[in-house]
Every structure is written in C-alpha cells, then in structure tokens.
Amino acid sequence: MLDTNPTLIQEAAGGPSRTGTTPLVLIHDGGGTIFSYHCLGELHRPLYGIANPHFRSGEPWEGGIPEMARHYVKLIKSVIPRGSKLIIGGWSLGGLLSLEISRALLDESDGAAASFDLLGIVMIDSVCPLALPKDKEGGRILVQHVVEWSPYTRQETRDAVMRSFAEARVMVGSWKMPTWRDSNLNTAHDTTSAAVSPILPRPPPVILLRAKEAVPVVEEGVSRVDVHRHDRLLGWDLYHPNLITQVIDISGHHFNLFSKEDNLIEVTEQIKHACRTVEAIAQHRGP
Fold it and tell me: Looking at the keywords, is Transcription present (predicted)?
C-alpha cells in the first residue's frame, strides 16, 4: 500500500485529458493510510491516493502541515502532467492538508505558468481546526475515538496508525492556516492578524461532504469531531466566511463513512457529484 506513492487507485478510459475525467487526488486521513479510498465505488475518473510517507518510519514532520503539503505537491507532480486540470481532497485530516496543498500550488505561480489548473477541493467531513475543542466543551466529556481493528491487522500497523493519529493532532494544533484574499473585498482574511494584502490568492472552490450523524458515545460525552456537528459548515466560517462553496449532507458519522456499505455507496456518489460541481464552476469561470 505504501510502496508506490501516490497510488493509482482507479483508472479512467481516455486519460486525464478526456472531458469529464479530471484526476482526483485524495490525501490520507489522520491514520496515515489510504485504505478507505480503495473501498470507494467507481468514480469514472483517475483516482490517486497519497499515504503518509513517514507511516512506517514514524519520522516526524518537523515543518508540520506546511512541510507535508510541499512534499505532497512534489508527489502530485510525479504522476500528473504539468498543466493538467486537478481536483484534490481527502477525509478528515486529508481535507486540511488539501487546503495547505492548494495554497502551496498557488504560491508557486508567481507570474509563471501554474503547475496545474486546480479546479477545487473535496473535503470529506473535515472539521475546521478553529472549531476543535482543547479539553472540555460546555461541561461535556470529550470522548476519544476507539479504533475498531480487523482481527487480521498486524500489531505493527496498529502502532503506526496510532502514532500517526497522535502526530496529526499535534500538527493540527500548531498549524497556522493559510491566509487568503477575501472573496468580496480585495483584502486578506487572516484569523491571526489584521494584515491586508492585495496580492493574496483567493481560495479554490471547496465542496464539503458533511456526516449527518454524531459518533455514538456515552450519554454525557461528545466526540471531538462532533462539537460543531450542528453547524453545516463544521466551523469553517470561523476561518474564512466564504471558503465553503457547497455543503452536501451524507449518511453516517465521521468514523463509519467508509466502513458501512450503504454509507460508502453514498460517499462515492457524492464525491462524483462534488467533482462534477467544481468542473462546472471552472467551465463557467472560463480560461
């Protein structure tokens, strides 16, 4: 699974240049693997998955999420031809990494031709870090998710996944999120300062697939990913008021989107819909 990175998970007849077959690159979740994306149904487009290259070694990313994003840009360039249309995304942490990758791609283009025509981002139940609680939430107990392992999962894999989750939580907690130009004003929207700049890029279209259900926990508790479950934007308006282009509700809770067959069918269909949506936006936008 990690020997080839990125991994070509699905192929599409005709290749990326064929209309309607813009490649989709999905980034790993907090556990570092792309197993879940192998469970998806046919998307009718090239699908690549990027796993955490440090999954086995456990080597930390000293530069945090920005360092990961810069490295993942190189990985994308290794499989997608320069100048191609591109859609990126991911489940949970994968959506956050996609946001940083999109900024890294846009920062590369300083008057020269862009590496890719980035059409948009598909976030799969990615919660805005600014909305994640630190300890307690309104007196409720924050319940840590317990991973349900297959009896065939090796101990070394379990250890690597849990190590990846722990590192991901630390990196997200210290992440200084990208700054963008406001969609309506020619100014920066920066959650950390009052900085104003006319040269910042606007964020690409972002389609958010949002799980409708909360993770089952003890009566007095709540999962960290569900503190803002009632908010259709999952807290992203705290970061940038115009970041999310469209929200699509999907059945299931955060942790069973890829493990329950009915949910998986719906996730597949809505990823297809999200990709078609950003393609339509790009077509309307024109060259």
Answer: no
Q: Which domain holds residue 123?
A: 7-285
Q: How many domains does the chain have?
A: 1
pLDDT of residue 184: 45
**CA pair distance 282, 287, nearest whole angstrom:** 8
Rg of the chain over CA atoms, in angstroms? 18
Question: How far apart are alpha carbons 166 and 238 in whole angstroms?
Answer: 24
Q: Which residues contact 266 (CB under 8 A, 6 or more apart)?
A: 250, 251, 252
Contact 47, 275 (CB under 8 A): no
Residue 183 covered by a domain: yes
* Domain CATH code at residue 186: 3.40.50.1820
Annotate 109-147 with DSSP letters as a single string: -SSSPPS-EEEEEEEESPPPGGGS-SS-BTTBEEEPPPP
Burial code (b: 16+ CB inside 10 Å, e: under 16) for 83-117 equals ebbbbbbbbbbbbbbbbbbbbbbbeeeeeeeebbe
- The torsion angles phi and psi of 95, rounded to 5 degrees, stand at -70, -40
User: Can you tell me the distance from the alpha carbon of 237 to that of 231, in angstroms, rounded to the nearest whole number?
Assistant: 10
pLDDT of residue 199: 67
Q: Could you read off the pLDDT of 195-229 as tens digits, one per residue?
A: 444 567 889 999 999 999 999 988 778 998 999 89
User: For the chain, which ranges sit under pLDDT 50?
Assistant: 1, 16-17, 111, 184-189, 193-197
Residue 1 covered by a domain = no
Residue pair 55/164 in contact by the 8 Å Cβ criterion: yes
